[in-house]
Every structure is written in C-alpha cells, then in structure tokens.
Amino acid sequence: MERIWLKSYPAGVPAEVGKLQYKSVGDLVDKKVVEFRDRPAFHSMGKTISFGDLDRMTRAFGAWLQSKGYGKGARVAIMMPNCLQYPVALYGTLRAGGIVVNVNPLYTPRELEHQLKDSGAEVIVILENFATTLEEVLPRTLVKHVVVASLGDLLGVKGLIVNFVVRNVKKMVPAFELPAAIRFNALLAEAAGKEMKPVEVGHEDIAFLQYTGGTTGVSKGAMLLHRNILANIEQMDGWLLSALKGEPGMIVTALPLYHIFSLTVNCLLMMQGGGCNILITNPRDIPGFVKELGKHRYNMITGVNTLFNALLNNSEFAKLDFSSLKLTGGGGMAVQKAVADKWKQMTGSTLLEGYGLTETSPVATMNPIDLASYSGSIGLPVPSTEIAIRDDNKQDVKLGEPGEICIRGPQVMKGYWQRPDETATVIGPDGFLYTGDVGIMDDKGFVRIVDRKKDMILVSGFNVYPNEIEQVVAMHPGVLEVAAIGVPDEHSGEVPKLFIVKKDPALTENDVLEHCKAQLTGYKRPKHVEFRTELPKTNVGKILRRALRDEKKPRKI
Q1: Across residues 303-323, what is the average pLDDT?
Q2: Nearest CA among 325, 332, 411, 312 for reference residue 378
C-alpha cells in the first residue's frame, strides 16, 4: 500500500511512532509523576492537584486495591463524571496492574447491570449521586467492593460546602443503602503510607475494557491493550503537542473522561506531556462553563460540534481572552462548517477535526495543525496508521471512489471482550478494522466521510445502536413491531426516531417515551415516535431500517 498521505504531513511529524517508550500505562505514570512532580495535573471547582499529589493519592488507591486482593488483571469499574477522584481511581488502578472499566454515570440500572456482569468487575468507584442505580443491581453482579465518592471529597474546606449544597440545596443525591461500601476519602486515609507493590504489566496486557455497541446493539468491551493506548498517546504527541512550541499544555476537558476521546486526547496525553486538565464537571451549564473558562489561560480545548456551537451562542463567551489558545480539536461527530468558521472568527483558532472509534483508542486520522480553515475532511492517517477504502467484496477501490473506511495500526484494539465471533466480523485476517463508515480518500491522502454503512446513530458524539433501542421498546406490551433510525437534529447532529406498529390501540407516544426513560440513558432515548400500520420488510420478514431512512432524506429535483 502506497502511503500517499505522508507527503501532506506537517513538518516535524514522523511517519512512524517508533519503539514505545514505556512498558505500560502504569509505567508511564510512574515516570511522569516524578518528572513533573511540581506541575499542576488537574484542576476542578477551584482546586488544583499537582503531579506529586496525584502520585501520592494514586499510590494509596493502588495499595488499597492490592490489599483487598485486586492486582494484575482485576477489573475496576469507574462511574463518575469529570471530578478529581476520577484520575486518582484511573491511574491508581493502572499502577496496581488492574483493568479500567469506564461506566457512564447516567446509565439506567439495566445498562449498568449488563456492563458490570459482562466485564466481571469486582470493584466499582461511584459518585454518590448515582449510587441508587448501583444499589438496585448490585446483588446480581460480581462486585465485592464499592467505593463511594462525594463531589467535594478532594476540594478541601470548600468541599464541605459543595457537598452540603449538592445534598441539601440541590438535592442531587437520592437516598441509598450500600452498607458495605467505603468512602473515597476513608480509603485514601486507610491506605496512606501503605506500599503499592510493583506489578509486571506489559504491552499485551489489557488496560481498558471500553464499552461500545460495535457493529450491533449489544454493548461489548473493546479490549484496549497497553500498547494500543501508548501508541495512540505517541501518535497524538507527535501530531498535536508541537503546536504548543514547548509550553506545558493546559487543556479544557469538558467531554466526559469515561469517553475514549477525552480519556486519551485530554487525560492521557497530558500525562505524557506534563500538562494540566481543567475538568468541567457539568458542561451543560454553559454560563457556568464560560465563567470557568474566564479564570484560565488555557492553550488547548477539545469538544464536539454541539459543545462548540453552544459556547459560540453564549454572549459572554465572545468577551473572553483567546490569545493563549493554540489548538482546538473536534471529534466524536461531524464538525459543521458554520460552527468551524464562527469558531475561527471568534477565537482565532482553527477547529481541527479528527476521526476515530473506541476500537482505535480512538484517534485514526487528524487534520494538520497548520490547517488554515475548515476543510470538511477528517484529516490524514496519523503516524504508523494505514487507511484503506474498500468495497463490499473487501477489495480496495480506486482513489477518489467511495468505500468502507478500514484502519490498520498499533492503536487498533485486540478485539471484543469474550466475543471472538463479533471480533471476526470487524477485524479482517490482514489486521484491518472495518469501521462501517463510508469515505473517500483524495490524491493527497485526506479522507472525507460521505455515508454510514451500519445503522449506528451518532448523538452528540455518542454511539447509539438501533438494536438496543428496539429491544427495549419491544418489551412494552403495547408494541407489536418497532424500528429505530437516526434523524437529523440541529442540536445533537442526530437523534433516535421510532416507527411503531401498535399491539394495543390505546398506546400513546408518551407511554413509549416514559418506558424508554426508565430503560435507556438520556442520549439513547428516542425524541420522535411515529405510529404505522406496517413497517417495510424484506421477503424474509426483516425490517428495513434503510427504507425508513431513505423516506426521510430530501428528494433531489
């Protein structure tokens, strides 16, 4: 394969990542917390912790895990939004040799139970705001140790005020009973000064079980090995950090750290470069978010199109000082030209779009940092990465012709946890991962997405799978048949829409939506319901989602 994209690489970006510097992500952390000991590592709600603080607390967390018998290969679930406890649990688990299982804190009991049982997690670290969900499913899982965190745990005296407001004023902590749980701060106190034993973890060991729908609606864990993660960190280091011209990174982290984009590009990349993550716990509070931005001289920010658009439409955002901003990265969903153009006009920073999947750790392509303006492209393959554009017969198409985007590189996952059949459907014998996205590569190596081969719906950068929605809706006794598709949405890019054939004539749209609310987390919930007398099917009776999608496309005249 001729790697035509290399001629378009920015100056100084290597074609290959070379030999990995570290044995594991834990080894990377071990080295960096010493190298950057006095630098700020994370900032949240007015509190900054240094790399030295992070070293002390993650050692304590890791020592506690080991004291309970959880060492190499133990699965530790982390169910928290962006707060200081997250990196402590994350890096503590990895330094102790464990495997991190990231969990969306807004999951419903059904979703949480599936992920905990499937992963085999025996420890969970959870913010108290979401503990009622865990309480409901805990007896049906393998979890033996529960660590409960409060939002203010690591904020010092201010944390007492934060916890009082969250619990008593905003009433954001429903009552729960987890009698055997240990509090996060009690854990750190119990383990303070205990020795964390060194663990031999290598490139081929699993670092993360990062859950995704893959090609179907059943949520499955992508096995991201230490070498996958380390390679993607190196790829991003070589591609992005040169934009800082030697300055330490200060990156705005508004996307949740449990999402693979924010996890690698923000959290892990800043560990490599000695940078600081400014954690935004609630990015939906745009006025509060903008106020926080005004307190920092950040030089990097990442997000999805909807987030950038929301900031641009806040009048106070335009008044901020953007003179230190050197890099803006967009991913997770398509960046719209109108948003990118307005961002460049307001901030002076080009919004660089990248592309990847959970299965690629995640970054596979990225636009050059010297890009002058929005291009509509998802960029070039990053170092050590090959992109092939293939037809339905798995043959490469001619340059400029559309086909399925296929990715091969050191960041591609080992496979899906305990699902070899599913793995075989997406990773070919030649090591290429079939993404389900249809794209075109031009003669300079730039890739554009033109369509989606699979049925996945993309809601504000989160994958939503019709199979899962349909299975949930079909549980309602009033539903005979159901199909789910994605339809365009100005705010989220896409939202799920249901087409239903009633079993019970009295069934209403509100009945369906309330049922979904109890079973699906917010971004998966359908926003539109249309009742039909029948649904389009193949001659063997399979419902044709594509026919429903085609109905919704504007007709060409």
Answers
A1: 94
A2: 332
- Looking at residue 248, the DSSP 8-state letter turns out to be P
Per the CB < 8 A criterion, the answer to whether 378 and 231 are in contact is: no
Angle at 134 between CA 132 and CA 138, to 5 degrees: 130
CA distance 161 to 158: 5
All domains of the chain in start order, with CATH = 49-202 (3.40.50.980), 381-452 (2.30.38.10), 457-552 (3.30.300.30)
Q: How many CB atoms lie within 10 A of CB 75?
A: 23
| 344 CB-near residues (< 8 Å, 6+ apart) | 350, 351, 373, 374
496, 486 Cβ separation under 8 angstroms: yes
Give the contacts of 319 (CB within 8 A, at least 6 positions apart): none
pLDDT, position 401: 95
Helices 337-347 & 305-312 angle (0-180, nearest 10): 50
Mean pLDDT of all residues in 62-89: 98
Alpha carbons 502 and 245: distance in angstroms, whole number: 61
User: Per residue, what are the HEC states of 462-496?
Assistant: EEECHHHHHHHHHCCCCEEEEEEEEEEECCCEEEE
pTM, full prediction: 0.89
Beta bridge mates, 252? 278, 301
Neighbouring residues of 298: CB distance < 8 A, sequence distance ≥ 6: 250, 251, 252, 278, 324, 325
Confidence of residue 445 (pLDDT cuts 50, 70, 90): very high
pLDDT tens digits, one per residue of 103-159: 999 999 999 999 999 999 999 999 999 999 999 999 999 999 999 999 999 999 999
Taking only the tens place, the pLDDT of each residue in 177-230 is 999 999 999 999 999 989 999 999 999 999 999 998 654 567 899 999 999 999
Provide long-range contacts, Cβ within 8 A and 24+ apart, for 292-296: 293/252, 293/317, 293/320, 294/320, 294/321, 296/43, 296/250, 296/252
Q: For residues 427 and 435, give the distance between their C-alpha atoms in angstroms, rounded to a whole number.
A: 9
R_g of the chain computed on alpha carbons:
23
Preceding omega of 40 cis (within 30 degrees of 0): no
Q: CA dist 234 to 260, 383, 470, Å?
A: 16, 9, 40
